[in-house]
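Q: Sequence in, structure out?
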Amino acid sequence: MDLPESPVKRRYDASRRRARAEDARRRVLDAARRLFLDRGYAATTIAAVASEAGVSAESVYKAYGSKAQLVLAVVHDAIAGQGPEPAELVADRISIQEADPVRRLRAFGAIVGEVTARVAPLLLLVRAAAGVDAELAEAWEQMQAERLERMWGHARRLADAGHLRPRVDAEEARDVFWLYTAPEIYDLMVGQRGWSPVRLGTWIGEAYVTALLDPGVGSGSEPAV
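A: Exactly. Output:
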C-alpha cells in the first residue's frame, strides 16, 4: 500500500514549484523588456521572447494572452521596481505618513525620477506602436487611466489637509501630479537635454511644491528617505 506524502514534503514541493514559476516569470519579463527596447514592439515576437527566456511560447501565451498584454505586464513590473517594496507602495506610504507637505512632495519628485527612468522608455515605445495596433492602443489608454487614477489619492490627501494653494482643487492637483509623471517630460529633460534622473526628480519635487502648496505650509526641510 502506498503511503501518503508527508505534509512537509508537500509544502516543500509547493515552495519549489512557486520558486520555479517566479524564476520563469522573471526571465520572461526581463527578456521581453530587452527585446521590446532593442527591436521595437512590432519586431518583437512572443516566440522570440520565449526563446530568450528559455520557456515555451505556449507558456507565455498562457500567462499573458497576447503581446499587448505582455508589454503591459512589463510596464507594471517596471513601475514596481526590483526593491523590497514596490514603488507605488512607497509613494502611498509617504503620502499617508509624511505630515509635512513640502517633504512629501519632494519625496514624490524623487520617486518620479527613479520610476520614470525605468518606465518612460517602455511607455514611449507603447505610445508609438499604439497607432498601428488596436489592442495596444487599448493597453495605452489603460496605462494612462491607471496613472491618472493613482494620482487621486495623493491629491485628495493634500486637499483634505488644507495644504493646496487657493483656487487649486483636488482635481487640478491630480492633473498636475499626472503631468509630471508623463514619459514625455522624461524624454525631453533626460533623453534630449541630458539631465540625470536624480536632477529631474529634484526639479519635479520643487515644481510640485510651487504649483500645488499654499505658501507657508510645511517646513521646507529635506525629504525623508
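Residues 67-218 form a domain with the Tetracycline Repressor; domain 2 fold (CATH 1.10.357.10).
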